[in-house]
Write a structure and sequence with these properties.
The protein is α+β, with helices and mostly antiparallel strands. The chain has a single domain, classed as Alpha-Beta Complex (Fumarylacetoacetate hydrolase, domain 2). The protein is built from 5 helices and 18 strands. The strands form 5 sheets. A 6-stranded mixed sheet has the order 4-3-15-8-9-12, covered by helices on one side. A 5-stranded mixed sheet has the order 6-18-17-13-14, with no helix packed on it. The longest helix is centred in the last third of the chain and has 11 residues. It is globular, with a radius of gyration of 17 Å. The protein starts with 12 loop residues before the first strand and ends with a strand. Bound molecules: manganese (II) ion (MN). The site of manganese (II) ion (MN) has 7 residues, from loops.
């Protein structure tokens, strides 16, 4: 028996549609993967390629209530298609990269926009703006290939805030996995949040959020 000197961290898992649990290893995220969102954030999508950042694995939130985080006055929603990897690899072509995908889910990349703006201004890391507790709500994972077109939208208290189509992604799912595999060796259990369309905006405690991506199981949660 392993002699842990403290209790080991609890496993992070995401429920799979039809039963079972997907164990999470890492969470990667893509920035500026939809041209209209890049523009609303003041970037030029024709000149700046998408890029990656990450969240800690235990940022995953699968309960119907998500705690409004401390230290922000401007918590933003970003609806995203999430890829769940069932195999690993590095330096993969898009064709090979696609074969790593175990399934897909609807996610929200919660962002402390005020802290992110400060980090951008001062050239500091994004961890505090992106990687806080419960910053990665995610719905049920549906096994199979990820959808390549179809609605991606988010509503707050029944009012539509974000509405786009997956075919607006600058990098497709296969291209995202391919690019990422040139930077990191990917492994089973990795989640990839693939970026958000335009319309990001603030949420407050008490808000009911509903996120839709194609025909994947919808993600619904309330901020408390
Ligand atoms: Mn995002």
């Amino acid at each position: 028996m392993t002699a842990y000197v403290i209790n080991p961290p609890v496993e992070t898992m995401v429920p799979v549609e039809g039963g079972g649990q997907f164990p999470v290893r890492r969470i990667y995220c893509v920035g500026r993967n939809y041209a209209d969102h890049a523009r609303e954030m003041g970037a030029d999508p024709d000149r700046e390629a998408p890029f990656f950042f990450s969240k800690p694995r235990d940022a995953v939130a699968t309960r119907p209530e998500v705690a409004y985080p401390p230290a922000t006055q401007d918590l933003h929603h970003e609806v995203e298609l999430v890829l769940a990897l069932g195999a690993g690899g590095s330096d993969l072509s898009p064709e090979r990269a696609k074969m790593l995908i175990y399934g897909a889910a609807v996610g929200v990349d919660l962002t402390r926009r005020d802290l992110q703006a400060e980090a951008k201004k001062t050239g500091r890391p994004w961890d505090a703006s992106k990687g806080f507790d419960q910053s990665a709500p995610i719905g049920l994972i549906r096994p199979g290939q990820s959808p390549e077109s179809g609605e991606i939208s988010l509503s707050v208290n029944g009012e539509t805030r974000q509405s786009g189509d997956l075919n607006q992604m600058i990098w497709s799912s296969a291209e995202v996995v391919s690019h990422l595999s040139t930077l990191f060796r990917l492994e089973p259990g990795d989640l990839i949040y693939t970026g958000t369309p335009a319309g990001v905006g603030p949420v407050v405690s008490g808000d009911r959020v509903e996120a839709i991506v194609s025909n994947l199981p919808p993600l619904r949660f309330t901020l408390i």
